[in-house]
Design brief:
The complex is a heterodimer. By secondary structure, chain A is mainly alpha-helical. Helices cover about 35% and strands about 5% of the residues of chain A. Chain A contains 13 helices and six strands. In chain A, the strands form two sheets. A three-stranded mixed β-sheet of chain A has the order 1-6-3. A three-stranded antiparallel β-sheet of chain A has the order 2-5-4. Chain A starts with 14 loop residues before the first helix and ends in a 7-residue tail after the last strand. Chain B has a single domain (about 30-230), classed as Rna Polymerase Sigma Factor, Chain: A. Chain B has helices at about 30-45, 50-55, 60-70, 75-90, 100-125, 140-145, 155-160, 165-170, 175-190, 195-200, 205-230. Chain B is elongated and about 60 Å long. The chains are: A mainly alpha, B mainly alpha. Chains A and B meet through helix 1, helix 3, helix 4, helix 5 and strand 4 of A and helix 2, helix 3, helix 4, helix 8 and helix 9 of B.
């Protein structure tokens, strides 16, 4: 076969030129040359034509109708960023202050913290059994390593990836933490009631003494400021003011109020724990707003069971039945914030929430003593403010990573 | 103060749904770049809804990149989410030298390539013997294609999308990640050669030849697929 001297063989055409042909961007000055070359190589011409078809199909694959993003993708991503920044000592590392502006109004900021719960820890072999002769007391946390959930205090706190965060949840905290499978899950929610079984604590609700009614009134929800130096609480990021074994309840309570600590109390009487939750649920749902139109809500509570209890009790005087159903569900208080939310709105919601949490505490204590609760708002409590909960509004230098410590509380009359 | 400022009660546990309404006035005529700049500025000024609107404007593109790179919807969703997290975290540092859209695609593509490299390493480590070289791909690429959970379209899908498109989708998963990336950026994202070169750190002079070679590889895989089906 002879070759025209001015027409290169098709396989000698540069890739760029062939690409232009495939993509339809061949310059007019090159058209004749390429066409002539391809006439002598019909196999290549056919292949290039097929590649044009491939390109069209590739382009079609990118159509939104073909590759539409799943619902909730953006919201989930935003939620992850916020959650990682709010929880587990993983402050968002930004060079600017963008996130501090972002966080409060970005998405539903779910902040709720109250350490509640009271347990019996009095049985044979109890590690922290109180002295029978002493008045009610709270025993400090054990120092064993397993009781510290979260980043190693000796390690610098860094941004935790989603994988690590979720892995931590799954491996160490499930099902109490922000369980992603909880119906009430909301990014950034705090689990406030934890129910792991601590070594050495009885699970039998029939043993152990009742919780002192002043336990939480004094140490968790006291109006009296705990004698803790503020500087010690707002330590530099990555550092705790004190080692876990040095935490005293008053400090823990204050830290919890300020959003830097969740108190995890190891229960022994899970049956009663369930009972308390139901009682609290009924009180909260009924006393505060059955339509849930207030600025906070309780989720993950066994509301159906609470409803059943309520139907069998007269208004103002009711007493739930004690059953042995194990409850491992955390109470989660959620406080939603959107861009229309003003500080006044927040303060009102926080007041409501704090009142409700105080009610839970009071109910637990009262029920534990075998009394009939008369009012959900009997117990006193701290005066929370917007800044107490929206701690990320503080300068980043003042952020203290949240840590979770198991803090067994042992109390008796 | 609004009477009902919060989403509460029965809605309290629902996933977040940011408002769709644009928080900042805009013109109907603004182009995508102008819109992105406006939303970025609004976001930096504390407008919470701007971020969601910005991301929602690109979520299909970003997810599409992940889907076509990984070939599996579940993984694509996770990876797109990870990429968005990186994007959100990097917005404060975004200097505006590139288009925001380009930067977002770059972040996403890097996440995909990184994931595929990890996958390839894992597959290499787990294989007792390498697969024979085939076509333009390497043994590792071949095993990667096996590793990727390729969504082979069913009959209905083929009817719906067209057999050619389904075949292209399958063949795409069988070329190397780098070839796949360059074709996705060119054909699905519609990026110009310079942007592709910047995104993938390819010298400007070789972008076109790389694209062409990727097209050749895709064609070879397509022909192999069809040939295998007819045998």
């Amino acid at each position: 076969m002879t070759t025209h001297p001015s027409i290169p063989p098709a396989d000698a055409l540069p890739d760029e030129l062939l690409l232009d042909l495939v993509e339809g961007t061949l310059r007019s000055s090159d058209v004749d040359r390429v066409r002539a070359a391809l006439k002598r190589d019909p196999k290549l011409a056919k292949r290039l034509e097929a590649m044009r078809t491939d390109r069209r199909e590739m382009t079609a694959l990118g159509d939104p109708g073909v590759s539409a993003a799943p619902v909730g993708l953006v919201a989930d991503a935003i939620g992850l960023v916020e959650r990682d920044s709010l929880l587990d000592g993983a402050p968002y590392r930004s060079t600017g202050s963008g996130f501090r502006r972002l966080a409060p109004a970005l998405i539903a900021a779910c902040v709720g913290i109250v350490a509640v719960g009271a347990w019996y820890a009095h049985s044979e072999g109890v590690l922290f059994a109180p002295d029978e002769a002493t008045p009610t007391q709270i025993v400090k946390a054990p120092t064993k390593e397993d009781d510290v959930v979260g980043p190693n205090p000796d390690e610098p706190v860094e941004y935790a990836s989603r994988q690590r965060t979720l892995q931590d949840y799954d491996e160490k905290r499930a099902p109490f933490e922000i369980a992603k499978d909880l119906p009430g899950h909301l990014p950034g929610s705090f689990g406030v009631l934890d129910a792991p079984k601590a070594d050495g604590f009885s699970n039998d609700p029939s043993v152990g003494g009742p919780v002192d009614p002043d336990l939480f009134a004094q140490d968790v929800v006291s109006d009296t400021p705990p004698t803790v130096e503020q500087d010690a609480l707002w330590s530099a990021p990555g550092q705790m003011a004190r080692t876990p074994d040095a935490i005293v309840p008053a400090e823990a309570a204050l830290w919890a109020r300020e959003g830097v600590l969740r108190i995890v109390v190891s229960p022994a009487g899970e049956g009663r724990l369930e009972d308390f939750e139901q009682a609290a649920a009924r009180k909260l749902f009924i006393a505060y707003d059955p339509t849930m139109s207030k600025g906070w809500g309780m989720t993950s509570l066994p509301t159906i069971r609470a409803t059943n209890i309520a139907s069998s009790a007269g208004p103002g005087r009711w007493r739930p039945e004690v059953d042995a159903v194990t409850s491992e569900r955390p109470m989660i208080a959620t406080l939603r914030v959107d861009r229309d939310t003003t500080d006044d709105d927040l303060q009102r919601a926080i007041d409501d929430m704090a009142q409700g949490m105080r009610a839970i505490t009071g109910l637990r204590v009262t029920l534990e003593r075998g009394e009939t609760p008369s009012s959900p708002t009997d117990a006193g409590g701290p005066a929370l403010t917007v800044d107490d909960l929206l701690w990320w509004r503080k300068p980043a230098s003042l952020w203290t990573p949240a840590r979770v410590y198991h803090l067994p509380v042992v109390a008796r009359d | 103060m609004s009477a009902q400022p919060f989403q509460v009660g029965a809605q309290a546990g629902r996933p977040l749904r940011l408002r769709k309404e644009a928080p900042v006035a805009r013109t109907d005529q603004e182009d995508a770049d102008t819109r992105d700049k406006r939303l970025l500025e609004a976001h930096r000024n504390g407008d919470a809804a701007a971020l969601a609107e910005l991301l929602e404007g690109y979520q299909d593109r970003l997810y599409g990149v992940c889907l076509r790179m990984l070939g599996d919807r579940e993984r694509a969703r996770d990876l797109a989410q990870d990429a968005m997290v990186k994007i959100i975290q990097g917005l404060d540092r975004f200097d505006g030298r590139a288009k925001l859209s380009t930067w977002m695609i770059r972040v996403t593509m890097n996440a995909c390539l990184s994931e595929l490299r990890k996958l390839r390493l894992r597959r290499h480590a787990s294989l007792e013997a390498p697969t024979a070289r085939s076509g333009s791909g390497t043994a590792g690429d071949s095993t990667l294609a096996q590793a990727i959970a390729i969504e082979e379209p069913g009959v209905e899908q083929r009817v719906q999308d067209g057999e050619d498109r389904a075949d292209v989708s399958s063949a795409l998963a069988r070329i190397t990640p780098e070839q796949r990336a360059i074709l996705i950026l060119r054909d699905m994202q519609g990026l110009d050669y310079k942007t592709i070169g910047d995104l993938l750190d390819i010298p400007g002079g070789t972008v076109k030849s790389r694209i062409f070679r990727a097209r050749v590889a895709l064609r070879e895989r397509l022909e192999a697929l069809r040939s295998a089906r007819t045998e």
